[in-house]
Amino acid sequence: MTAHPSGLPPLREVIAKHGLAAQKSLGQNFLLDLNLTGRIARAAGQLDGHDVLEVGPGPGGLTRALLASGARRVVAIERDRRCIAALQEIALAYPDRLVIVEGDALVTDMRALVSTPARIVANLPYNIATPLLVGWMQTEPWPPWFESLTLMFQREVAQRITARPGTKAYGRLSVLTQWRTKPRILFDVDRRAFTPPPSVTSSVVELIPRDKPLAEANPAALERVVAAAFGQRRKMLRASLKTLGRGDPAALLETAAIAPTRRAEELTVEEFCSLARAFADRM
Is the pTM of this model over 0.70? Predict the structure, then answer.
């Protein structure tokens, strides 16, 4: 097995040297295939002159690819202290281009860590992928500080992100992401590409921020309305929206010009925004 072009040892050697068995509690599945990490880095577009934020780099397979692809600087947020030494070896091979932040990405002020233009590229730890994505979608002001997101998810999550109204996969994530971005699945990744292999196929998703959201809405109000509607998705909206706790949902639905007998999965993103505006007026 040959060393990486940067002179770094193969990832399997790094994992053995530092005892980096992936921990399920941290949602870890390490990517060791250099062809695949290179493909993800290329999928993120032209990285020259860009800062790249990476969450959950683990032993640094994708980190290496992002640096080799010409990223001005990679800021890697890693919660697992065991991985820090492996990442520091990469930092030595790419002087002044890798910033390692030890901490929890869910409570980290990411905007403060990067300079624009910036992109987010990550093989996200499965157990925090959805809350991270929702947080990025609630960024204020909008357009956000990042030009794009290129992210690895379980395929089921990727399908929910890109689902259209009227489909089984359409739900909360579909509305929140499509409201402010244009998401698309770029390619699937076989489970055998990971160590250890997860039980499901993964997908790389690209999300490009819209200059303006699809329709006007308060992010917090939209989140509340969407969560209530899909919380009981089999029920008609006149029943599911009762959990909002603002009296009879009939008046809310009438203001938004939406029939009370419709169900959440039938509504377009724009209709959810209309509901959110009506709800915000009552908050």
Answer: yes
